[in-house]
Amino acid sequence: MPGGSIYVQQDAKFTGASPQWYYEKYWREDTRTRRRNRAIMAAVGFAIGLALAIRFNLPFSVAYALGLAALVAAADWYWHWSKFRATAVWRGRRRGETITGKLLRSSLGKHGYRILDGRSIRGQASIDHLVIGPGGVWIIDNESWSPDTEIATYGGRLFFGEKFGTKVATGLVDTGNAFAGLLTKETGIPVAITPMVAVHCGLMPRGGLVSAEGLTLLKPRLAARMIRATSSAAYSSDQVETLARIAARELQRI
């Protein structure tokens, strides 16, 4: 769904023809297999725990073995649950902008950053989050691809699986430039905006960050960290307030 909005719910997503529907169907059908495998792993954990308890002459050897079996089962359950939960935005069960907005506010609000959600230039491009702070200005959109879509760069170009990501990158870079131009014009403060995409589902490289074609894609939890890592003091507190006030006035809420 590159270039599209993940928040415009399409009927096909909830029908038997959609990848999301099939993903949830196969997940439910695989429940019995997961439970059987978990029981086997717990039994192996029990055997290993009992053997270790006997080998090292530990007291309450059976209780020790049961504890290890329970720990193995719990770890396996959490691993499968976390993988399924990671697809929630792609499946339309959670809202990506809500997740990212909470992360941004909890990490940046106390450090002098202002976060405006759901903004657009009237009748033109829109974004999910506009972040204004001492280190600069960022726009952040939320996107989600299927769990097996590899997000990577080759030769300086962005790819989503086998598809070029130029359309996504160009669209957000152009939106950032349009926002920057409007803020510069209305405030008299030179503004350059850094565009980002918070990726809620998709195969990201180790570290959870990809940069290409003027765009940075990263896991939602990394956005605030990357923003705070910007060491340059681009704006004073008064300038931050001015930019935030003008942005709230001039940019339409969506």
From TrEMBL:
Residue stretches spanning the membrane: 39-56, 62-81
InterPro entries (UniProt xref): NERD (IPR011528)
Pfam families named among the record's database cross-references: NERD
Stretches assigned to the NERD domain: 94-153
Keywords on record: Membrane, Transmembrane, Transmembrane helix
Name the record gives this protein: Nuclease-related domain-containing protein
The species this protein was found in: Nonomuraea typhae
